Amino acid sequence: MTKTIVVTSGKGGVGKTTTSASIATGLAKRGYKTVVIDFDVGLRNLDLIMGCERRVVYDLVNLVNQEASLHQTLIKDKRIENLYILPASQTRDKEALTIEGIARVMHKLRKSEFDYIICDSPAGIEKGAKMALYFADEAIVTTNPEVSSVRDSDRILGILQSESKRSKMNEDPVREHLLITRYNPGRVKEGQMLSVDDIVDLLAIPLLGIIPESQSVPESSNAGKPVILDEASEAGQAYSDAIDRLLGETRPHRFMEAQKKGFLKRLFG
Amino acid sequence: MGFFKFFGAGRGDTTAQVAKDRLQVLIAHERSGRDGPDYLPMLRQDILDVIKKYVAVDDEALTVQLETQDDCDVLELNITLPEHEVRSQPSEEARRRAALRRHGQVTG
Fold first, then answer.
1. Whole-model pTM?
2. How far apart are alpha carbons A125 and A20 in whole angstroms?
């Protein structure tokens, strides 16, 4: 059974592509045959984060338009077995995507026995974002602890609940996961940043993970290597925990220590 | 949440708390208008204007919600009428009727 997961947020710059790259890499590392699709047609970047930018020949639009085969379009990752990248087109725009075209691509991927299809959504709520979430079984809503990001996440949750294929076909709803990125426990403790509890309260969906703000994220991007492969980094470990939870295991949330201390202090101090 | 609010008295005036309070109001408002058709805000305003012709109510006194139950859509209107408006001052008409009634009882 192929599972389709959309990584979405509404707002831009919150870490969708970083998350898509690490989630896909983490799933493949655990033995699942995984493909990560860049839906940001016109603003391709997943290839850069995955470090395969010089190997792009064909892209999603070629595949949708049947100008290239799935085999020709998929880029096989050089580090991880079972991991494939499907890049976006850089010369076209989002209008080149259609539900029918994407449905054909999804069908081909299912026939190729992929376990996971990770859809890296573009920012916004326009066509590209709606195409990315349409076929989703699960959604990872990437949110920064910041007012505009939380508001946009709530908006995208509404769209998931009304415009996904599952909602339109009256099937079981898309399973929603909250992933908080760029979390800074120190600033939360000082009352300068929304806390995990605040965001979980506001959005009211289950928490998949908390990725601490970390220098290793931009450095991994610089190197074209998903941060989950930087096993020494807190962000890498936090993504790894999130993968375990996605697969149904229980892992305590880490890297929110300062916030925990703040809680105890507020109780007893 | 209440738990945190209660114990986190020191957090009451932090920017994070301000952010949460603002988001709570905003998200609740946006969710209520999310699933409905585009005309719902205008319908709400028109209904409110009609009510205001008869009763002095606040803009917040009316909530309009469209819910889907099985095969039919249910439009739910909730109007909170101000209590004192209803009870404290009888209208001229009510006074006249009361006077007539009492008069009738005395003579009848």
1. 0.79
2. 18
Q: Looking at the partner chain, which of A191, A192, A202 has a beta carbon nearest the beta carbon of B27?
A: A202
Among all residues of chain B, which has the CA nearest to that of A150?
B23
B15 to A151: CB separation less than 8 angstroms, yes or no: no
Nearest CA in chain A to B70: A170
- B interface mutation test: which of A144, A153, A266 has the most B CBs within 10 A? A266
Chain B residue closest in CA terms to A162: B35
List Cβ neighbours of A203 (8 Å cut-off, separation of 6 or more): A141, A143, A150, A153, A154, A157, A178
Q: ipTM > 0.85?
A: no
Partners of A178 in beta bridges: A141, A207
Please identify among residues 202-241 of chain A the ones whose CB lies closer than 8 Å to any CB of chain B. Answer: 202
Q: What is the pLDDT of residues A39-90, one digit of tens each?
A: 999 999 999 999 999 999 999 999 999 999 999 999 999 999 999 999 999 9
CB neighbours of residue A29 within 10 Å: 19
Contact in structure between A257 and A185 (CB atoms under 8 Å): yes
Cα A159 to Cα A4: distance, rounded to the nearest angstrom:
17
Going by the DSSP 8-state scheme, the letter that residue B61 receives in this structure is: G
Looking up tokens 């026939």 gives: A111
